[in-house]
Every structure is written in structure tokens, then in C-alpha cells.
Amino acid sequence: MADETVFTPDVEFVRSLKEAGAETMKKCYQCATCSVVCELSTEKSPFPRREMLMAQWGLKEELVKDPNIWLCHNCNDCTKYCPRGARPGDVLGVLRQTVIMENAFPKFMGRIGSDHNYLVFAFGLPIMLFLVILGAFGHLHIPDGPVVFDHFFPVHLIDPIFISAAIISLLFFTVSIKNFWDGMNVNPYRLMANGRVIPYLYETLKEMILHTKFDKCGANKDRTLAHRLVVFGFIGLFITTNVAVFNMYVLGWHTPYHIDDPHILKLFGSEALVGLYYAGFKLVGNLSALALLAGAIIIFTNRTKPKGFVSVSSPFDWVFAIVILLLAITGILAEFLRVVDIAALAYPVYFLHLVFVFFIIAYLPYSKLAHIVYRTTAITYAKLAKVE
Ligand code: SF4
Ligand code: SF4
Q1: Domain with CATH 1.10.1060.10 in the chain
Q2: 154 preceded by cis ω (within 30°)?
Q3: Best of 37, 47, 77 to mutate for ligand 2, by most ligand atoms within 8 A of CB?
Q4: Residue pLDDT, tens place only, 144-169
Q5: Tens digits of per-residue pLDDT, 7-49?
Q6: How many helices (H) and strands (E) does the chain have?
Q7: Residue 28 CB–ligand 1 contact under 6 Å
Q8: Domain 11-102 has CATH 1.10.1060.10
């Protein structure tokens, strides 16, 4: 007699999925159209039909260790052709959020960073922290004179806050991803023994950066461009932030930057070289901010324009899109207000910009951006387990 497999449905899990935006999953009658139309589904382990069934049955344990959830790139081709309007693409999006929350370390941070019901707390935390620090150091006012952000929120106060937040966030992210890796179906450490982890990881990263899988999307092609702009915007801003740190702590060049700073002139040898270095730094920073803004605007128009089928973004998706948009707007606006020297607006906008930057850094392991790392891990695992 064949071995029996006993599943334990988690009713509470089904309820939480519905609340998070997967209420249509109950409509699925398992016709498998979605798995057939999905360009990314594989013969060995087709999706998303099976995941729809597992979600309906509340099989939480099986779902959180299923790499297929991450092989999906949310193109919504399946949603377009689903005869029941079960919106499998959207359901898989909710499942990804659930996996992030399940693996989150510490759990309460996962909840704050990915549950929209805790949004007030998530934003309240940096706002209160900044206000207390500014107040304690006598900076809680609009400084006199031309706009210099360092006179309002000095770098020697900003750096300890943001560097600590980045280190803590990175540690929490590492533990969260380890939880995810440990929970995979087949013992992932046994699979790693075949020595293919590095080549597969390299292959996956290449696919991710070039967006080759996104290019297979049919129903929602604009998503690819938006995704590229947001990813490259963040990469550019990450580079410029690190160059700014390098300028300060290695070169000893402090803001506001002066091309004729004698110390920097001595280091570079000529004013022309200093000017070139500064222009390159500003160009990458400004282009990255514009890429982020353009990406966020495309995400918004893409989500709200008629597509010929119903697809509803979850609150989790909306929060991320809004934060990206506000991050880009406040960054560009603060720069503009500094240049035109409107102190009464420049400093408050800069303050808000720092709040959004903190939000992105502190909640990185639990946000939409964490998808990049979860997806890379899952695709590498799928290659190792040969289910891709
Ligand atoms: S989600 Fe839709 S297309 Fe997929 S199996 Fe269910 S009913 Fe069929
Ligand atoms: S959203 Fe796209 S990638 Fe994801 S399961 Fe549906 S068709 Fe496949």
C-alpha cells in the first residue's frame, strides 16, 4: 500500500492570506490554464496551479519552502487567462509577502516592515528618533544663512544613525535569508556539496541584472522597464552614497563641496580633475534619482491603467511603490530647494527625505526590495535541486 501523506490545513493562515489580498484564491477550480500560459513555469515543477491549491488548503509549511513562489516574476499572464478570475499572479505576490514575514528575524520587525497595519509605527519610529536627536543637540530649528543641510542635520549625527541601521538591517537580513535557505524542501546543504553553488549563483545574478526572465512577460511588459529603472536607480544611489562616505572619511572632503578646497586640490593635482570627479559624482547621483522617479511613476501608471483583466496590487505592494515615489520626489525637491535657497521648505523636505531613506534601510529585509535577495536564493536553490 502506498504511503499516506497527511496534510494539516492552517485555517488561520487561509484567513491571513485573504486579508492580505488573496481572497480570490477560493475561486480556483484547478483547470491548470495558468501553469500552461506561464512562460516561467517548468515541466518538472509547474506552477502556479499547485500553489493555488496549497493556498486554498492552508498548507503554510509546504508553501513557505516552495521555491516556485519566487520563480514567478508577477507578470500576470496567468491572471489574464484564468477563466475563474482567481488572479493567481496576485495570489503568488501575497504568498511571497507571507514567506518574508515567516522567515523574518526578528519577527516583530518583519511585521512592522511588511504589514501595512503597522505603518504608523514604521514611520513614527524614525520621525521620533530624528526629532529627539535634533532636539538633544540643539538643531531643532531652521538655521540662519544659505541652505546647507549639514547646518540642520550634521553628518556627524546622521552617520551613526544610518550606519548603525544599515549594519543591524544587514545582520537581520542575513539571518532571515538563512531561515529561508534552511527551510527549503530538500536539504539545501546537501545540494551545495555538488560544488555548483557559485556558478549557479553567478548565472542567477546575471539573469536578475539583465532582467531576462522579466522579458518573457506578455500581459504586463511595462513592468520590466519600471523594474529596471528602480533597480538601477537604487544601485546608482548606493554607489553615490558610498562615494560620499569615501569623500568624507578617506579624502577628508566635507560638504558643502568646494572645487578649490586646497586639501583636495593637492590630492587630485589640478582643479580640472577635481571638477571632473565632482561632476561624475553628481551626474550618477542625479541620474539615479531620476531613474528611481521614472520607475516609480511607471509603476503607478501601470497599476492604475486598464489592462483588459483584473489585477489588484496588495497594500504591501502599494506601500513600497508610494515610498519609492516619495523618496525620489523629496530627494530631488530637497536638492532643488537648496539650490534656489528656500530654507523654510528645504529643511523640512530634507527631513522627510531622511525619514524615507531610513525606512528603506531599516525595513529592507522585509520590504519589496528583499524580493531581489529571496528570488536570487530561490532560483539558485531551484537550479541546484534541478527543479527549474
Ligand atoms: S488559478 Fe485559474 S487558471 Fe489557474 S488553475 Fe485555478 S482556475 Fe485554472
Ligand atoms: S504571474 Fe507570470 S510568472 Fe507568475 S505564475 Fe503567473 S504567468 Fe507565471
Answers
A1: 11-102
A2: no
A3: 77
A4: 999 999 999 999 999 999 999 999 99
A5: 777 899 999 999 888 999 999 999 999 999 999 998 888 999 9
A6: 19, 0
A7: yes
A8: yes
